[in-house]
């Protein structure tokens, strides 16, 4: 039994590491001084867990995101479903803002941020042409 425990532990670690997928998306606002950020989404389909983080260009720190809701709509029969996903941005244990993203298939149609304190809403465009890497994120 003692010989079996290390093998079981390695199997569990391998399973845990392989189960979490990561997506990185880059977004930018319009204007002379655009605001840019990267959105990292994490998913463990095996346990139904979703998580995320945003990191603004020029910042070392990320802000954690908590999935609030995901609404699915069939807009046109036979076409990919449209997803409206809402993430809550957390700062010091409180909701700092809300991100809402609308996707269909691989397309991202809109991304908006609403500040929880002021209610100010800002629209962002998906910067699909920006290269990403797991280590560096968006390469602005």
Write the layout of secondary structure elements.
Elements: H1 4-19, E1 20-28, E2 36-44, E3 49-56, E4 63-73, E5 82-91, E6 94-104, E7 107-115, E8 121-126, E9 132-133, E10 137-138
Antiparallel strand pairs: 1-2, 1-8, 2-3, 3-4, 4-5, 5-6, 6-7, 7-8, 9-10
What features would you highlight for this structure?
140 residues; mainly beta; eight-stranded antiparallel beta barrel; two-stranded antiparallel sheet; 11% helix; 55% strand; disordered N terminus
Structural notes for this entry:
With 140 residues, the chain is mainly β. It is built from one helix and ten strands; from the N terminus they run H-E-E-E-E-E-E-E-E-E-E. Strands 1-2-3-4-5-6-7-8 form an eight-stranded antiparallel β-barrel. A hairpin with a 6-residue loop joins strand 3 and strand 4. It is globular. The N and C termini lie far apart (52 Å).
Structural class from helices and strands? mainly beta
The profile of the biggest β sheet is: 8 strands, antiparallel, barrel
Main β-sheet, spatial strand arrangement: 1-2-3-4-5-6-7-8
List the secondary-structure elements in sequence, H or E: HEEEEEEEEEE
Per the principal axes of the C-alpha atoms, what is the gross shape?
globular
The radius of gyration is 18 Å
Give the mean pLDDT.
Answer: 88
Distance between the termini: 52 Å
Into which percentage range does the β-strand content fall? over 45%
The count of β-strands is 10
Q: How many helical stretches?
A: 1
Poorly predicted residue ranges: 1-16
- Measured as a percent range, the helix fraction is 10-25%
